[in-house]
Amino acid sequence: MNSSSNVLIQTRLPTPLRIYLKAYAKQHGMSMEKSCEQILFLFLQRQPWQQGMRWRVPLSNRTDSGEQYGWKQLNVNVGTEMAGRVEGIAKQISISRATILYSAFYWFARYMAPVHSQREV
Predict the structure, then answer these.
(1) Are 75 and 10 in contact (CB under 8 A)?
(2) Cα(79)–Cα(8) distance, integer angstroms
(3) How many other β-carbons are positioned within 10 Å of the β-carbon of residue 5?
(4) In angstroms, rounded to a whole number, what is the distance separating the alpha carbons of residues 21 and 36?
(5) CA distances, 73 to each of 11, 45, 115 (Å)
(6) Segment 92-103, tens digit of pLDDT
(7) Rounded to 5 degrees, what angle do the CA atoms 25, 107, 58 make?
(8) What DSSP string describes 5-64?
(9) What CATH architecture is 3-120?
(10) What is the enclosing helix (H) or strand (E) of 75?
(11) Which are the contacts of 105, defined by CB distance < 8 A and separation ≥ 6?
């Protein structure tokens, strides 16, 4: 993928989700950036919002709740085609690109690759 054809998309994540995504990437021998790109690709491919998934709006770190849970900005570089798909969905259903990304990462952590406690294994 040519880095000059990449587009930066931003969202915000709470600390626990950020830690989870970093651990997932490391466990699978990927950079966080590559892992996030693959998660977004899977999310766009599966389209869970078509099956009733609720969109999740990221908090600002400038609010009390956002500060309490350590919400911080995450920048994701994606190809122009993927960025276009995200932008198209955002415009079609009137939500932000940040909401799409946060929803994708939440969906992945919650439903696609959840962490099991030792008792569940």
Answers:
(1) yes
(2) 9
(3) 11
(4) 8
(5) 6, 24, 23
(6) 999 999 999 999
(7) 95
(8) GEEEEEEEE-HHHHHHHHHHHHHTT--HHHHHHHHHHHHHHH-GGGGTPPP-PPPPTTSH
(9) Orthogonal Bundle (1.10)
(10) strand 72-79
(11) 11, 13, 17, 21, 36, 39
H or E segment at 89? helix 80-93
Reading the block at residue 29, the tokens are 């021998």
pLDDT tens digits for range 10-64: 999 999 999 999 999 999 999 999 999 999 999 999 999 999 999 999 988 777 7
d(CA 113, CA 107): 9
Question: Which tokens belong to 1?
Answer: 């993928």
pTM (2 decimals)? 0.86
Distance of alpha carbon 28 from alpha carbon 34, whole angstroms: 11
**Residue 63 carries which side chain, given as an amino acid letter?**
T
